[in-house]
Amino acid sequence: MGPTGAGKTTFINTVTGSTKLQVSDELESCTQEVQLSDPFVFQDRNVVFIDTPGFDDADADRSDADILRMVSDYLTEVYRRKQTLAGLVYLKDISQVRMSGSACNNLRIFRKLCGDPSLRNVAILTTMWSTVNGEEAEKRHRNLGRGG
């Protein structure tokens, strides 16, 4: 999960070694619906990433609440099929100085939906390091850990 353009789909394609999920180099985002990566094995477990549309998409006809609802509906269906969700990866573009208000709000909503114990299975990953001076990127990364 994360804002549009943070590199969610690129991350999934890189980790899985696949090019199955379409990536856009244009202003418009490609991911409009929840989609699945090809399965791969990690530490003797079969893993599938769930790719989601991005938040804060100015060109989309859907609000962040609509996207959260779409993801929640999908996860409800996963639960009904007795499949296990191991965690959440939230991607943040390090070239953005701050976490947007909507990004913080989305994480708060996720926390309310899933409960505090689920936070131990949440990872915030930063992307776009090549677009920022290394020292500045490191400073921003440290500030994320302090919540500021």
Automatic annotation (TrEMBL):
Pfam families in alphabetical order: MMR_HSR1 (PF01926)
SUPFAM superfamilies reported in the protein's UniProt record: P-loop containing nucleoside triphosphate hydrolases
Protein's name according to its UniProt entry: G domain-containing protein
Domain G positions: 1-62
Any GO molecular function: GTP binding
Organism: Coprinellus micaceus
Taxonomic placement: Eukaryota, Fungi, Dikarya, Basidiomycota, Agaricomycotina
